[in-house]
Fold these 2 entries.
Entry 1:
Amino acid sequence: MFYEIKNGKIHIYVKAQPNSSKNKIAGLYGDDTIKINIKAPAVEGAANKELIKFISKQFKVAKSEIEIKGETSKRKTLVLPYKGDIIKKLEEINDKQ
């Protein structure tokens, strides 16, 4: 599973692919990570900022409520507040894979 609930927060495990033609959820990457294509290059945190902006729009969460762990890692963890709508959307993404 590419996400889990810990300490009242949703942790989403992400493989960000910078320099893509558009921002999109590309699908599962292995068993426990979701791949997300990001337009911005991996220079000076631009891809991470774009990733947070994209996730904010996808899940209707304020950018300030999204925490990113492993900023320089290939596999990042996004921490979002626990909200039912986010879980529903994650389940929809999981079912499509």
Entry 2:
Amino acid sequence: MPTRPDSNTNDPCLTCGACCASFRVSFYWAEADSLHIPIALTEAVNPVYSCMAGTNQARPRCQALSGDIGKSVACTIYAQRPSPCHEVQAGDEKCQKARARHGLPPLPPLPTLSSRPTDTVPDSIPT
């Protein structure tokens, strides 16, 4: 997901935007109201779900995305973005799939729990 303009300049999302132009961004309709997402940026999927305008088509591109994919992008409603936008993280499976769809190179994989440093925990606590 593209990030806000004041984010870290090393953030790969600032030059990507592939996730915003690869998936339908669906959410419970009331989420748009609670986040104050402009109605022009949403469309109904069915009586219960809405999606970000532009994402419910064969070649999706969220209308809240500005810029050129793979060059420089931003989400125009970053602070108000719906929950599905929080789910995709730089380097995760969805990110890699979206980047491949747009001909962008993969990002390094995200660290896994087994590759993170851990504190040693005693097998038992003395009593």
